Amino acid sequence: MHKIHKLLLFIALSSTACNNAGDSSASDNPGADSSQAVTVPVTRESLAGCYSQIYERDTSSLHIKLASDSLTGDLVYKIFEKDRNDGMFKGDLSNDVLSGWYYFKSEGVMSVRQVLWKISNGQLWPAMGEMKIRNDTMIFTDPASLKFDDTHPFVKVNCAE
Question: Residue 103 is part of a domain; what is its CATH number?
Fold first, then answer.
């Protein structure tokens, strides 16, 4: 009988843990120290999906798909009262940084821009830094000095069908 109680307790705890995966936040445990948070290794497979960033009236979305040799997907920036940038992302994952190239059309012109996101707690934090144009491509001038937006991440959302 004692073994059955342990088994039932284990099943109950396991199902509770599975149902709450990814739902924890600072508001659930206001006293939690984020430096003690358990980090799960980021994989290409875990990155696949849809992400959204909303800041005031600006919205951005990224749909990451697995390709054989890289990560690809649609990337859209809708900046309020500006032209919409609608294009394709192609890049890869190295440690906790998603980096690659954004191929997009704006004002009828095709452009290429380097993009990077630091991955933390399942969110994508965009890189910011000085850029320069080389040939027809915008690149970061000094990748070592990049800062990551710590207030407006891309968060994973359900993909719209």
Answer: 2.40.128
Q: Which domain holds residue 56?
A: 47-157
DSSP 41-102: PP-HHHH-EEEEEEETTEEEEEEEEE-SSSEEEEEEEE-TTSPPEEEEEEEEEETTEEEEEE
- 141: in domain: yes
**Region of residue 87 (phi > 0: left; psi between -120 and 50: alpha; otherwise: beta):** beta
The predicted-structure confidence for 20-48, as pLDDT tens digits, reads as follows: 344 444 444 444 454 555 566 788 888 99
Residue in the structure block whose two tokens are 């690809």:
72
Torsion of CA 56, 119, 132, 71, to 10 degrees: -110
- Cα separation, 52 vs 76, in Å, equals 10
Instruction: Determine the residue type at 104.
Output: F
Say if 74 falls within a structural domain.
Answer: yes
Residue 78 belongs to some domain of the structure: yes
Which contacts of 24-29 are long-range, i.e. CB under 8 A and separated by 24 or more positions?
none
- The answer to the question of residue 12 being in a domain is no
Kindly report the pTM of this predicted structure. Answer: 0.70
Give SS3 for 103: strand
Residue pLDDT, tens place only, 104-124: 987 778 899 999 999 998 899
